[in-house]
Amino acid sequence: MTNTGIRVLMVEDDEVIREATGIGLARLGYQVQGVGDGLEALELLRQLQAEDPVDAVLLDVMLPTMNGTQVCQQLRGFSSVPVIMLSARGEGIDMVTGLDAGADDYLAKPFDLQVLDARLRAVLRRSQRSAQPPAPKASEPAHAPGLSIDPHRLVVSLEGRQIHLTPTEMRILLMLDREPGMVVSRTEILTEVWGYSWDADHRVIDVHMQRLRRKVGAERIETVRGFGYRLAGGSS
Predict the structure, then answer these.
(1) Where is this region: Disordered (predicted)?
(2) 137-163 pLDDT tens trace
């Protein structure tokens, strides 16, 4: 993937960080637009969504008028654009609230520009693949009680009722459903779903797994301590 023509909106209230990061990304071929206010960013994203959507958003947690978590929550109401949350504090609570709000990844400041580039490339690859996810085992939608996964229509039902999954949650579930009962390591999940296995905080996976368990049933996704996760019993 070449960075040329990739449009990134950076939402950061620190003008020095915003400009320095923008210059660095521009040298790597990105087209970067910056804003320093949460509400302004949300209004701009609504406008761009209707006219010419950006390819990715870098979203700081601490922002005036509306914080990054609030921006991300509202953004997810009308857009699935890849979002990387940024936080100067690097605290676990920032990561959890950011991912719960719908962010795709999280990066603590200060960060290396090359790491940011790699993370952007990874979320953009995932976004491009979302329309054509890796094919798991063949499965037909089931109306009987239980978990049903239709990999062709990307529809998941629980006890006959369709449930909404984010693209990241869907990719994780499809990956686990390929071989139900087999353990999938965190590294394998990072490599396939996030697109990288280096410089990674595995808590990103844990947060997504918690969200996925709440939606499909905690008993259906087992943690194998020290190894990874497995789907208990698979889908109907």
Answers:
(1) 127-148
(2) 444 443 334 888 888 888 888 888 888
Amino acid 134: pLDDT? 46
Total-model pTM: 0.69
Nearest CA among 52, 49, 2 for reference residue 30: 2
Strand order in the sheet with 221-224: 184-185, 228-231, 221-224
- Domain of 42: which CATH number? 3.40.50.2300
Nearest Cα neighbor of 172 from 158, 161, 163, 185 is 185
For residues 194 and 122, the answer to whether their CB atoms sit within 8 Å is yes
Q: What are the strands, taking DSSP E only, across the chain?
A: 7-11, 31-35, 56-60, 83-87, 105-108, 147-150, 155-158, 161-163, 184-185, 221-224, 228-231
- Amino acid in the structure at residue 103: A
| Of the candidates 168, 32, 148, 164, the residue with the CA atom closest to the CA atom of residue 103 | 168
Pairing mode, if any, of strands 105-108 and 83-87?
parallel
Residues 117 and 41 occupy one common structural domain = yes
The three-state secondary structure class of 152 is coil
Task: Determine the structural domain holding residue 169 and report its residue range.
Answer: 147-231
